[in-house]
Amino acid sequence: MMAYFDGLLEARRQGLVSEHVHLGLFDTDSGQTLASAQEAMSLHHLHHLAVTAGAFVVDVGCGFGGSLRLLDGRLDGLHLTGVNVDPRQIEVARGGVWRSAVDWQLCDAAAFSDGRAEWADRILSLEAMFHFPDLAGFFAASRRALRPGGRMVASTILFGAGAEAASVAVICAGFGPWPHPAMSLTGLCDLARAAGLAVGLVEDLAHRCRPGFDWMCPPCPDKLTDNPVIELRRLFEAGTASYPLLVLELQDQAGGKTQK
Ligand SMILES: C[S@@+](CC[C@H](N)C(=O)[O-])C[C@H]1O[C@@H](n2cnc3c(N)ncnc32)[C@H](O)[C@@H]1O
User: Strand order in 197-204's β-sheet?
Assistant: First the structure.
């Protein structure tokens, strides 16, 4: 189980961290806290997801449920599903009051639509795919889950070809499981397309994540450290790690997008 969540779970229970577990999205103006940048990152994903009232929405790798909670507060009649492999996170996420119907699924990302087809309007996966062992299975499950006119927004962290291997090793050990450190953007998009999902938009948000490291760790010393946050910061600052957000839509058999 993801060891880096041990401390985060306790910090969340004490109210010391927000209900978003990701790097945050910063504007050029200063004055943003990490918590407000994290909300901005979730809202940015939700903007691309374009959810409407009454929709069936799935968040795969839902963490403490922060993005689902934002939707819950904004739209009526939603049917929400939070997917996670970690029962401790689901226990935290389900706490408090939810206005919408929420289904919590304890399973791998590739299994969230087993036995079901065409039941979801929108699928979100925010900064979680780097953990998934079976990415092809995850895209296939998403393709199966989506109704005609459905849409998916998924983001992750990728290492570039020039990323320092020793830093990558520290990051993968500290933030593991990270089963596919050599995955490229092309490889990721190919897997999505092979599952029948059209890649509508790709946005690299890495430069807007960088200010968040000031909240999370000291500046990078010249020498390699054993701290995964510092080594991730090193790669973001060197431009050898990216943070792609993908907007994916159903592809019909002719290769075009399905009609709404
Ligand atoms: C960096 S956190 C992001 C959490 C959440 N999306 C957010 O924005 O706050 C990565 C999440 O992916 C989940 N995860 C890891 N491996 C998974 C898997 N195989 N299937 C589903 N979720 C997984 C983790 O438990 C964690 O909740």
Answer: 101-106, 79-84, 56-60, 120-125, 146-155, 244-250, 197-204
Spell out which residues line ligand 1, taking CB within 6 angstroms: 2, 20-22, 60-63, 66-67, 83-86, 89, 108-109, 126-128, 131-132
Cα separation, 47 vs 205, whole angstroms: 14
Structural domains in the chain? 4-161+184-203 (3.40.50.150)
The string of pLDDT tens digits covering residues 55-104 is 999 999 999 999 999 999 999 999 999 999 999 999 999 999 999 999 99
pTM for this one?
0.96
| Whether 27 contacts 79, CB under 8 Å | no
If you measure from the C-alpha of residue 84 to the centroid of ligand 1, how many angstroms do you get, rounded to a whole number? 6
pLDDT digits (tens, 9 = 90+) for 245-257: 999 999 874 455 5
